[in-house]
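C-alpha cells incoming
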C-alpha cells in the first residue's frame, strides 16, 4: 500500500504540475458555468436545469478525459521514464491502479466547484429552493463518477497501447462518443427493439438524465464497474506486453 500511495501522489502531483491539466480545468469550469447559467435562464424548471447540468458535465468529459489520460503512459515512454519505472520493484497492476486513481482524483476535484451551482439556486432563488432535491443531485454526481471511472480506465488503456499521445486521445474520444451519442440516435436509426434496448443500455447520456431525476438503475452500476475493471485489466496486460 505504501508503494501504491507513493505512485498515486506522484501521478496527482504530475497532474497539478502539467499546464494542460490547468487548461482543462479552466475549460471545464467555464463550459459548465456558462451551461448552467443558460439552463437556468432559459428553463424555469429547476430540476430540469440540474439534469441538463449533468449532461453538460458529461459533454465536457468528451474533451477533458482523453486529454488527461493521453499522457499517463504515452508521455512516460516519450520522456524515457517508462523503462525506469518498469525496472523498479513494483507490480504492473500497482502502477496502473495508482495512475488510474491519480487521474480520477484530479477529475473529481475538477467537478467539486460545480456543487456550488445548486447552492447558488438556494441563495438567489429561495422561492424555488424546495425544488432542489439533494437525493437526485447526489445520484447524478454518483453516476458522473461511475462514468468517469470507466472512461479514465479506457483512456489509460489507449495510452498504454501507443506511444503517441494524440492517437491515444483521439481513440478515447471516438469510443466515448459512440457510447454517448449511440443511445441517443439509435431509436431513430433502427426499428429493431433489441437494438434500441442495447443502445439505450449503453448510452451514458440517458443514464445521466435518469439518475439526475433520482431514478438509479443497478444495471448502470454493473455496466460501469465491469467496464472499469475490464479496461484496467487490459491496461495491465498492455503494460506487461510493453515490459
Amino acid at each position: 500500500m505504501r508503494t501504491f500511495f507513493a505512485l498515486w501522489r506522484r501521478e496527482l502531483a504530475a497532474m497539478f504540475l502539467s499546464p494542460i491539466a490547468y487548461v482543462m480545468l479552466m475549460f471545464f469550469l467555464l463550459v459548465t458555468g456558462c451551461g448552467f447559467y443558460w439552463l437556468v435562464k432559459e428553463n424555469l424548471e429547476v430540476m430540469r436545469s440540474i439534469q441538463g447540468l449533468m449532461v453538460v458535465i458529461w459533454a465536457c468529459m468528451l474533451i477533458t478525459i482523453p486529454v488527461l489520460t493521453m499522457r499517463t503512459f504515452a508521455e512516460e515512454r516519450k520522456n524515457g521514464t517508462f523503462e525506469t519505472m518498469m525496472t523498479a520493484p513494483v507490480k504492473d497492476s500497482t502502477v496502473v491502479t495508482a495512475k488510474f486513481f491519480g487521474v480520477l482524483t484530479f477529475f473529481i476535484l475538477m467537478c467539486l466547484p460545480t456543487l456550488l451551482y445548486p447552492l447558488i439556486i438556494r441563495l438567489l432563488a429561495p422561492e424555488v429552493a424546495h425544488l432542489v432535491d439533494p437525493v437526485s443531485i447526489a445520484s447524478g454526481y454518483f453516476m458522473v463518477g461511475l462514468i468517469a471511472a470507466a472512461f479514465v480506465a479506457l483512456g489509460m488503456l489507449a495510452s498504454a497501447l501507443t506511444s503517441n499521445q494524440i492517437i491515444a486521445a483521439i481513440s478515447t474520444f471516438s469510443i466515448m462518443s459512440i457510447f454517448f451519442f449511440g443511445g441517443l440516435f439509435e431509436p431513430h436509426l433502427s426499428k429493431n427493439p433489441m437494438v434500441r434496448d442495447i443502445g439505450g443500455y449503453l448510452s451514458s447520456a440517458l443514464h445521466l438524465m435518469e439518475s439526475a431525476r433520482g431514478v438509479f438503475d443497478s444495471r448502470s452500476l454493473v455496466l460501469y464497474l465491469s467496464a472499469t475493471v475490464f479496461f484496467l485489466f487490459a491496461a495491465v496486460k498492455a503494460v506487461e506486453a510493453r515490459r
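note: Residues 2-242 form one domain.
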